[in-house]
Specification:
The structure holds 2 protein chains of 2 kinds.
Chain A lengths: L3 E4 L2 E4 L5 E7 L5 E7 L5 E7 L6 E2 L6 E7 L2 E6 L7 E9 L9 E2 L3 E5 L1
Parallel strand pairs in A: 2-11
Antiparallel strand pairs in A: 1-3, 3-8, 4-5, 4-9, 5-6, 7-8, 9-10, 9-11
Chain B lengths: L2 E4 L4 E4 L4 E3 L1 E4 L5 E7 L6 E6 L5 E4 L2 E4 L9 E3 L8 E8 L5 E3 L3 E6 L1
Parallel strand pairs in B: 2-12
Antiparallel strand pairs in B: 1-4, 3-9, 5-6, 5-10, 7-8, 8-9, 10-11, 10-12
The chains are: A mainly beta, B mainly beta.
Chain lengths: 114, 111
């Protein structure tokens, strides 16, 4: 088995601030993802990385940057936090890039912007 | 584009009653269909997936049949337990390897 660790668990920022969320996985999976989860809405893909050194934009990439530092880690940066923004950011990984693969999710980072 | 529509929650049931969460999908391709479950404070986890039309998936007493003609993948359980309280996500993946999630259905089971 394996685990996905997301840090921090809770993140409080100020409007306009640059904020970084981190994700680590020990599955040895090639592909990693960042999703945004808003209350009452589905999971929306922000960025994904098929392999180490790869970065791909998802449907919601504006306002975010991502970095795949090594195979096991994938970071997401909110470039300028928006006031009253509240969401949960979920990191996931899968063995390979392919829609039929199961995705394994971390517990999430809950963002609040004051 | 591809999309998934599912029963709007919350769905509130008493223990021992039956559950149906409707899921309809749109795609011009040949998707794999998934049900994920998310318990409070955790990330979603796979309940089961079905890659082929007209086949059924099941796990922990939950089941769903991939109905290609009706473009549906409804989740059912004959007798829910309080521990089944969670958010359930229907999802599809297409041949472009993208996965699309529905908005989720919150299930509340009362003892």
């Amino acid at each position: 088995g394996g685990i996905i660790t997301q840090t921090p668990k809770f993140l409080i920022g100020q409007e306009g601030q640059k904020l970084t969320l981190k994700c680590q996985q020990n599955f040895n999976h090639d592909t990693m993802y960042w999703y945004r989860q808003d209350s009452g809405k589905g999971l929306r893909l922000i960025y994904y990385s098929i392999t180490e050194n790869d970065l791909q934009k998802g449907d919601l990439s504006e306002g975010y940057d991502a970095s795949r530092e090594k195979k096991s880690s994938f970071s997401l940066t909110v470039t300028s936090a928006q006031k009253n923004e509240m969401a949960v950011f979920l990191c996931a990984s899968s063995p390979d890039w392919g829609g039929s693969y199961e995705q394994y999710f971390g517990p999430g980072t809950r963002l609040t912007v004051l | 584009g591809d999309s998934v529509t599912q029963t709007e929650g919350p769905v509130t049931l008493s223990e021992g009653t039956s559950l149906t969460v409707n899921c309809s999908y749109e795609t011009k391709q040949y998707p794999t269909l998934f049900w994920y479950v998310q318990y409070p404070g955790e990330g979603p986890q796979l309940l089961f997936k079905v890659p082929k039309a007209n086949e059924k998936g099941s796990n922990r007493g939950f089941e769903a049949t991939y109905n290609k003609e009706a473009t549906s993948f409804h989740l059912q359980k004959a007798s829910v337990q309080e521990s089944d309280s969670a958010v359930y996500y229907c999802a599809l993946s297409n041949s472009n390897n993208r996965i699309f999630f529905g908005d989720g259905t919150q299930l509340v089971v009362k003892p």
